[in-house]
Amino acid sequence: MAVAAAFAPGSLLPTTPSTHLAPFTLRFRFSLLPRRAAVVAAAATLREVCAGRVPDHVLQRAEEVGYVVPTEVQEQSLPLLLSGQDCILHAQTGSGKTLAYLLSVFSAIDFSRSSVQALVVVPTRELGMQVARLLAAKACTVMALLDGGMLKRQKSWVKAEPPAVIVATVASLCQMVERRAFSLQSMRVLVIDEVDFIFGSSKQVSSLRKILTSYSAASSRQTIFASASIPQHNRFLHDCVQHKWTKICTKKERLHVLLSLLERDAPKSGIIFVAEQSERSKKAGNPPSTTVVAEFLRNAYKGSLDVLLLEEDMNFNARAASFSEVKGRGFLLVSTDIASRGFDLPQTSHIYNFDLPKTATDYLHRAGRTGREPFSRLECGVTTLITEDEHFVLQRFQNELKFHCEELPLESMFTFS
Ligand SMILES: Nc1ncnc2c1ncn2[C@@H]1O[C@H](COP(=O)(O)OP(=O)(O)OP(=O)(O)O)[C@@H](O)[C@H]1O
To answer: Which PANTHER family does the record match to this protein (predicted)?
Structure first.
């Protein structure tokens, strides 16, 4: 038997602040209404919300690229962020947290000073590239220190002329700070994006804590945490907005079911999430599932979208190429969870969980890659392919995230060999 399920993102409720990284003060928490309602409800423009705090040239640039009306998370958080308070930005995926914290960064920077004044810590190179691009477009010196980057060359640049803002992964940040390539003494704003992900690794937490306590003063900076899934939350999602679909099939049928779904949905663009290859499978010399799925689609899919691949083991140049290729084009991106956090590809209409995510949090972040255009009426959906014995896992995610799945008979909808 096969089934489909409906699921929709909605509001996230406040959490207990995480205290892993004392000595921060975390004074602000809020909940968020559904994204679309949030946009409709906005009364003031972004310019009005930021008046007198964010430099005019930044606001002008924001308007040029289409950021005119604040999303609800921006409307709610900016008055606090711009007043310099420490904040937890805990709001659903695609709600506009990045622009909220970036505007706060711009309000705090003295553009005439040549020193590192803001640090944005990100979990992955891809998210870092995205944030750095958004910042760079706003005419300010920004340097991205990301795993696999040219840290040696950057070390001399950063020494010669320290950028106002650094966007960094923890590992590359440690390397540069420990080599004394720059100082964090003038840092006014610290942002930790996808904070729960970074706090999920004790190694990253201890490295970050060491850097922050040794090289910057907690009392003189603003700290902002951002994520759609802050730890210790009481409850996650409610309020249906979009249809999300789940299907049951046997492992063998998955590729063909996926193909049928793609034909039926005709996505504008889609991301197909596939499990990372196990060590055992690597040792056995098997190709990664991502490659298998991408190869299958390249041969069998007859639609107009480009089939692209993104996975951990690809070298950084190949990863960067895949990431920049998908920008602005119709694509079917086959990826591991590397694309599940922070990735902002607004044209993504459909998500397919070819393999189940490991946790409910991972499910949330994967699902959040769609429905990201606040003003769009694009039909969006999340589809999960599961076998009968995986049903209980999905049930666990539903219980934890408080969403409801509806099942849809497979045979009536598809024919596959
Ligand atoms: N005020 C705005 N007007 C129009 N579009 C906006 C506005 N703010 C943000 N966006 C767009 O909304 C999309 C989602 O924003 P963003 O990436 O900041 O979400 P997020 O909350 O950080 O999501 P995630 O938790 O998944 O990282 C992006 O395409 C961004 O360009």
So the answer is: ATP-DEPENDENT RNA HELICASE DDX6_DHH1, DEAD-BOX ATP-DEPENDENT RNA HELICASE 47, MITOCHONDRIAL
Domain residue spans in the chain? 46-227, 233-412
Answer CATH for 233-412 from 3.20.20.70, 3.30.70.100, 3.40.50.300, 3.20.10.10: 3.40.50.300
- The pLDDT value recorded for residue 48 is 92
Distance 112 CA to ligand 1 centre (A): 28
Check for a shared fold between 46-227 and 233-412. Answer: yes
Q: What is the C-alpha separation between 229 and 227, in angstroms, rounded?
A: 5
CATH superfamily of the 46-227 domain: P-loop containing nucleotide triphosphate hydrolases (3.40.50.300)
Probe residue for ligand 1, chosen from 40, 45, 67, 98 as the CB with the greatest number of ligand atoms within 8 Å: 98
pLDDT-based confidence at residue 152 (cuts at 50, 70, 90): low
Q: Which residues contact 60 (CB under 8 A, 6 or more apart)?
A: none
Evaluate whether 351 touches 324 at the Cβ level (below 8 Å): no
For residue 99, which atom of ligand 1 is closest to its CA?
18
Query: pLDDT tens for residues 88-140?
Result: 788 888 888 989 998 999 899 888 888 889 999 988 877 777 777 766 655 55
pLDDT value, residue 231: 56
CA of 96 to the centre of ligand 1 (A): 3
- DSSP summary character for residue 150: -
Task: Single out the residue of 306, 349, 301 nearest to residue 324, CA to CA.
Answer: 306
User: How long a stretch of residues is the chain?
Assistant: 417
d(C-alpha 105, C-alpha 62), whole Å: 14
**Non-local CB neighbours of 404 within 8 Å, separated by 6+ positions:** 5, 6, 7, 398
Does the interface ipTM go beyond 0.85?
Answer: yes
pLDDT digit string (tens) for 230-282? 654 333 222 212 233 444 455 567 888 889 889 888 999 999 999 988 887 88
Whether the pTM exceeds 0.80: the reply is: no
